[in-house]
């Protein structure tokens, strides 16, 4: 009888230990580029022993995935992605509030008043041009939105699709403000469409295509383009002189996600100094007081920034994207 009792106790301990080990993981969706996400999550695992099972999605895909999984969430945290879509996810009841002990390091203007999302970094919209392709084609560097609709760029520009990309939706709201209203903005988008060769699913794809010479000119985020140039791509970069918008890359907890304890640990860690030092290496402008802004040659102080309103952008996203789908892509 004693042997049976000892065996039962041993098995019980083994089961509990196995359960504990199995729980030392967290599932995340991320809109960070794959190498950046891997470096960040690998360091988290090294520091905490908690494995991160992550899937890379564009901002629009992340919201769509969470909406499809609302009855049975498959991830606990969404790391990265434009702030407007984190606001959209909150409005759709897809995310949950969490007051992180590290949130105080981010200014209140860059985090949700109800603690549903928090900003990680800012990234302005910029243009990239492959200098080798441009030389062959006799193209000069466009430095403004006005330049981008000139006839000589017809078929030579690539950007993402706002149906799937938060980057591209940022372009829509950007030009609406620069050109003085929605009607004027859509007139501009129709003119720009004549020069677009294709719309990609991901906001970072056009820059990568430009870097390898597949397309001469790309619209995307400044930090993605600086990183490509630092990696040796023959590209020139310009921030539009007539105004630029920016993303506030953010983070949210998924409502009713699995392993919430580990999810909150990941959330806290991303806001801490170790992670913020990693983020600062991405050529972005970190929002945490823990991080130092990198020296990239570009400064917000020298840019013409639009008066961005992420709350308005989020509230009007479905309507504006629907209008874009109806009016723009087929308008060649």
UniProtKB/TrEMBL annotation:
<dbReference type="GO" id="GO:0030288">
    <property type="term" value="C:outer membrane-bounded periplasmic space"/>
</dbReference>
<dbReference type="Pfam" id="PF13343">
    <property type="entry name" value="SBP_bac_6"/>
</dbReference>
<keyword id="KW-0732">Signal</keyword>
<protein>
    <submittedName>
        <fullName>Iron(III) transport system substrate-binding protein</fullName>
    </submittedName>
</protein>
<feature type="signal peptide">
    <location>
        <begin position="1"/>
        <end position="22"/>
    </location>
</feature>
<dbReference type="GO" id="GO:0030976">
    <property type="term" value="F:thiamine pyrophosphate binding"/>
</dbReference>
<dbReference type="GO" id="GO:0030975">
    <property type="term" value="F:thiamine binding"/>
</dbReference>
<dbReference type="GO" id="GO:0015888">
    <property type="term" value="P:thiamine transport"/>
</dbReference>
<dbReference type="InterPro" id="IPR026045">
    <property type="entry name" value="Ferric-bd"/>
</dbReference>
